[in-house]
Specification:
- About 10% of the residues are buried.
- By secondary structure, this protein is an all-alpha fold.
- It contains four helices and no strands.
């Protein structure tokens, strides 16, 4: 298939960046639906918000927050590679991205309670 390239950390970072972008693209229409229900009045928004109290929806919110943090951090990694000649420190950049993403997820979980 791709050969030895898929074993490199840069390939995994690019894959995670693309997959998190796809997750955000899937989320966007759902977000627009939520905004549209708010325009339909308070009752429609209240009905929509009742659905969001489901534990599965709460879990999907966590996944979206992690996808957003992942996409942002790995996007900053791409900018660092492009503009700062950061290629030889890929593993350090990935470790930093992972730590920051997990920190954002933990903050979200602590605040969501």
């Amino acid at each position: 298939m791709i050969g030895a390239a898929h074993k490199q950390s840069g390939f995994l970072a690019a894959l995670a960046h693309r997959l998190s972008g796809i997750a955000l693209a899937v989320f966007l229409p759902i977000h627009f639906i939520a905004l549209a229900t708010a325009l339909d009045g308070a009752d429609a928004l209240d009905r929509f918000l009742i659905v969001t109290a489901d534990p599965l929806v709460k879990l999907s919110e966590l996944v979206i927050v992690l996808a957003l943090a992942t996409h942002m951090m790995l996007g900053l990694r791409v900018l660092a590679i492009e503009f700062l000649d950061f290629r030889e420190r890929t593993l350090t950049a990935l470790s930093t991205c992972i730590i920051l993403v997990l920190g954002v997820g933990l903050l979200f979980l602590l605040n969501a309670g």
